[in-house]
Every structure is written in structure tokens, then in C-alpha cells.
Design goal:
The protein is of the alpha+beta class. It has 15 helices and 17 strands. The chain has a five-stranded antiparallel beta sheet. A five-stranded antiparallel beta sheet has the order 7-6-10-9-8, sandwiched between helices. The chain has a five-stranded mixed beta sheet with strand order 12-14-15-17-16.
């Protein structure tokens, strides 16, 4: 491979180097040598050794260890380079190597010298054929000590196709990695025990973990209990083969800051790549937005159904107000008649008190019916200016009765300042009682020492506020924006319609109603109504 004088005639005529080219095909076969004793290396004839060396299919060049001259080339090397042996012997390095910088003369000499010093050296070398074609080769130089002195035997093979194949594989791998990295779908392969043996980067992003950390981990550990059972069923079904199976799974730990659940769709099928991956292939992609949209759709459908019932209730309320109003009016007339008959006799104080109480209750029933009729037909003139403290005081008697029935203690914390509001008195009273009754019934399920409900009134930011606080289980993780949609109730037989109607009443009055968890335990419900402007 270097610029050195041609080999001497003595070396060229050595049998082991076969200077005149390969042995002719018609050359007579050498007589058979006697078999070597068992356990002893056979004693080959020099001509047989020359034939064996000539028959090697790898390209072989022999260099002088000191001068680096070419001493011999086997037929495979001569065919690959397109030179005869006589043409090769005087060649210089630039005549049979690529002119690229990595293959310059100094680099070739250094490589051969390493083989002389260390016994062997491997490199990638680009030979240049007689026709001018570059031959990218893997070349292995080995020092061989012969009787005539040390030589360097170079074996090389064309690796151009292998390099092209490696480039194609590397390019394909790069593309796949780019596709997988930017793919929304996560790819996970599970073994028969459900442990991850492969996970793409997108799968790690989907699960919020490093892909390497997923390997060897049971995939069910990342799923909610219900979804873990779905995965087990998929694993069992995959062992029996068949086509791909679709399913939905829910992550065990929500990743969103608001604590909302995350869902992903899974397509799975059994995978068996020879000498590589075998198990259940999972293709996952996030469908949280779709699941939430479906939930919203179901909730909207439920709300529309609720509105339909609500409208029907309005029609029924009108009918009830009309039908019940007549017997109440008749009862009032009968009570008045009894009282007029007793007026001429000595009045019985107990009987008189009973008739007066009955009259008050009948008047209240009539007032409720009038308010109900006014609310349904939206008669704004039914509103009046009233102190919110007075409304709460009017409801106190009914709330006290309910609290005593359940052994609940009431704490009243009402402000001394007037809270004038423009509202329909009976309807706002119904809201106060609904919130208070809910709190009382919630506390009835707890130990006696905890059965306390606080009801307070106050002025806040230009509004009159009523607040009801209990020490129960709180809102139980229910989204606050759904509590007043008719979907929340802490009672076993409740349906949440009372809260929905309370929300409708307060909203119609231009106010706000809200709910929240109360520290350290329980819930707080409050509503606010705009304060009336004070007279100058």
C-alpha cells in the first residue's frame, strides 16, 4: 500500500507467494499425503498450502513488514482491484487507494505499522481499482512471522453495500424516531405479565413519566382500579390471538392541576416479532377532551329533561294555585262564620286562639299560592322592599321545629344593621328554609356533639348576604359549578331539585348563590341580593 521498490525475484519465486498468478485449472493434483496421526497437525506440502491460500474468497494482500511493499495478492484481491500480480507489485499507495484525505499514504503506513507492533489492526480503507472505482472495505492487517521474515497479511472485503444498508437503516430509524417523538399516540408493549418491555417517548408524555422508567413496571399501576381490570381482560384475550381490540382506560392519578380525570383510548393486539418483541402492543392516545364533551352532552340532556319537568311543574303549580285557592277561601269564610257566631256568647279563649291560629295559617297558605302564581307568570309587581333580616326571622320558627326534630343546635348570627332588598318575600323565605333544612338534615347523620348549624346575615360589598354553615361531609368532591344544576344531593332520596330552584329564584332576583367546602369540615351555602338604595 506504500511506495516501495518491487519485490525481489527470490521473494517472487517463493512457492508460498505464487508469483505467477493462481495455479492453472489444468495443473495436476499433488499426490495425497499420508494422514497425520490423531492429535497431531497435518504436514501439508508447500504446494498444497499455496493452493489453500489461493482458494480463499476474501481479498488478501501481503506486505513486507519493514518496507510495506506489496509482496503478493491472492486471486480474489487481483479480481477486485482489476490488476495482475505483476501490475500490483510496483504500485504506490496513491495508485490503488482513494484520493480522499482519510486514505492518504501516511495513514496507510501508520495502520500497517500498528499491525507490525501490536500483531493486528483493523480499519476501514477505500481501495481504488484499475478502472477507477472506489472500494469501501473493512481491512484487517495481521503480522505473520515467516521463515523469510515478518510480513503483514491484509484481508479486506467490500462493505459498500453494508454501509449503504446501514445508512438506510439509520435514516429509517431516524425517521421513525421523529415520527414516534411527535406522534400523539403512545406505543407500549407489555409482556405476558403486563409489564412494559417497550415504551415510546410519546407514551412517556401521555403517562407523565420518563419512558425508561416505564420499562419493567406493571402497566396496571398507572391505571384506576376499573381500568386495571379492563387491561387484565385485554391481556387474557390477547393470548388467544385474534384481531385488534379497542378499549378506554382512565389514569389512576390525575395530571391536571384542577384534579380532573384523564382518559385515553387504547387499541391493542398481540405482537410477535422473531428474536425481538413479543407481547401485547398498546396504541394509546388522549381522549380526555372527548370524554368531557360526552359528559357535557349527557349533562345537557339531563338539564334539558329537568327544564321540561320544571316547565311542567309550572303548569301544575298554576293549576294547584287555582284549585287549592278556592277551598282555602271557603275555609276562611267558615272560620269567620264560626267566630261571628261565637261573638254573641261568652268567648272561649282557647277556642278563640285556635280559630285565630287557623286563620293565620290559612292566610299564609293563600299568600304562598299568590306568590307561586306570581312567580310562575313572572309578575314583577309581586316584589316589595323588605328587610332580609325580617325574612330570616319569619323562617326561624319553621327551622327551629325541624332542628328540634333532628336534635340539631342552631346558632343565629344576624346583623343588627338593616338589609333592605327588593324581592318577593315568600320565595326568598323558601330559599332560606331550603338551605337551612338541607343543613339540618345533613347534621342529623352525625354524632350529637357535632350537630350544629350556623345561620348568619351580613352586609358585604353592597349586597345583603345570608350564609348557612354545617359541619358535615362537605361537597364530596362534586364540581361546584354543577351543584345548582339539579345534580347534587347529600340525601339518600334527594334529587337536588331544591337547590336548582333556589338558584333560579336568586338569579331571577339579580342575586348570586354559591357553595363551598368549609374548613375544617362541612359545607357553606350562601346567597346575596342587591341592597336597595337608601333614601336621602
Amino acid at each position: 500500500m506504500t511506495d516501495l521498490p518491487a519485490a525481489t525475484a527470490e521473494h517472487a519465486e517463493a512457492p508460498a507467494y505464487e508469483p505467477s498468478g493462481s495455479a492453472p485449472a489444468s495443473a495436476p493434483a499433488a499426490p495425497s499425503a499420508p494422514a497425520a496421526p490423531s492429535g497431531q497437525a497435518p504436514d501439508f506440502d508447500p504446494a498444497d498450502l499455496a493452493r489453500l491460500l489461493t482458494a480463499i474468497e476474501h481479498c488478501v494482500l501481503v506486505h513486507d513488514a519493514r518496507t510495506k511493499d506489496i509482496l503478493w495478492a491472492n486471486p480474489a484481491a487481483r479480481a477486485a482491484l482489476g490488476f495482475t500480480l505483476d501490475e500490483l507489485l510496483p504500485l504506490k499507495a496513491p495508485d490503488m487507494s482513494s484520493r480522499a484525505r482519510p486514505y492518504r499514504r501516511e495513514a496507510g503506513r501508520a495502520w500497517l505499522q500498528r499491525a507490525v507492533d501490536e500483531g493486528a489492526s483493523v480499519t476501514e480503507w477505500c481501495y481504488r481499482s484499475k478502472a477507477g472505482h472506489d472500494i469501501i472495505s473493512e481491512a484487517r492487517a495481521v503480522r505473520v512471522d515467516l521463515a523469510r521474515g515478518p510480513v503483514v497479511m491484509v484481508q479486506f472485503r467490500d462493505i459498500a453495500e453494508e454501509k449503504a444498508t446501514r445508512r438506510d437503516l439509520s435514516r429509517t430509524e431516524g425517521r421513525l424516531q421523529a415520527f414516534l417523538r411527535d406522534l400523539d399516540e403512545g406505543i407500549v408493549v407489555l409482556d405476558d405479565e403486563g409489564r412494559a418491555v417497550f415504551a415510546s417517548e410519546s407514551a412517556g408524555g401521555l403517562l407523565g413519566r420518563d419512558p425508561e422508567a416505564l420499562l419493567g413496571t406493571p402497566f396496571a399501576a398507572f391505571l384506576a382500579p376499573g381500568s386495571a381490570s379492563v387491561l387484565r381482560d385485554l391481556l387474557a384475550a390477547s393470548r388467544s390471538g385474534g384481531g385488534p381490540v379497542d378499549a378506554r382506560c382512565r389514569l389512576a392519578a390525575p395530571a391536571a392541576a384542577d384534579g380532573s380525570e384523564r382518559w385515553f383510548a387504547v387499541r391493542c393486539r398481540y405482537l410477535d416479532i422473531e428474536h425481538d418483541l413479543r407481547g401485547l402492543l398498546l396504541l394509546c392516545h388522549d381522549v380526555t377532551a372527548a370524554v368531557r364533551a360526552e359528559e357535557e352532552h349527557r349533562r345537557d340532556a339531563q338539564y334539558l329533561n329537568h327544564l321540561a319537568r320544571y316547565n311542567a311543574m309550572g303548569d301544575i303549580a298554576m293549576a294547584i294555585a287555582h284549585e287549592v285557592g278556592q277551598p282555602i277561601a271557603a275555609a276562611c269564610n267558615f272560620v269567620a262564620g264560626v267566630r261571628s257566631r261565637l261573638a254573641g256568647d261568652a268567648e272561649d279563649s282557647a277556642l278563640t286562639w285556635g280559630l285565630e291560629a287557623a286563620t293565620r295559617q290559612l292566610d299564609r297558605a293563600a299568600q304562598i299560592l299568590r306568590s307561586l302564581r306570581a312567580y310562575v307568570v313572572r309578575l314583577e309587581q309581586s316584589k316589595q322592599r323588605v328587610d332580609l333580616n325580617d325574612i330570616v326571622a319569619d323562617c326561624a320558627c319553621f327551622i327551629e321545629v325541624r332542628a328540634r326534630e333532628h336534635g340539631v343546635t342552631l346558632r343565629w348570627d344576624t346583623t343588627d344593621r338593616p338589609l333592605p332588598v327588593h324581592c318577593e318575600k315568600v320565595l326568598i323565605g323558601q330559599v332560606v328554609m331550603n338551605l337551612a333544612f338541607n343543613a339540618v338534615e345533613e347534621m342529623a347523620r352525625w354524632p350529637v356533639e357535632r350537630r350544629t348549624v350556623v345561620i348568619r346575615t351580613r352586609e358585604r360589598a353592597g349586597s345583603a348576604e345570608v350564609e348557612v354553615v354545617d359541619a358535615g361531609k362537605g361537597l364530596s368532591g362534586v364540581r361546584v359549578d354543577r351543584i345548582f344544576e339539579g345534580a347534587f344531593s347529600s340525601k339518600g332520596d334527594g334529587h337536588g331539585i331544591g337547590l336548582a330552584l333556589s338558584h333560579r329564584i336568586i338569579s331571577r332576583h339579580g342575586g348570586e348563590i354559591e357553595a363551598a367546602d368549609h374548613a375544617p369540615r362541612g359545607a357553606v351555602f350562601r346567597f346575596r341580593l342587591p341592597l336597595c338604595r337608601r333614601s336621602p
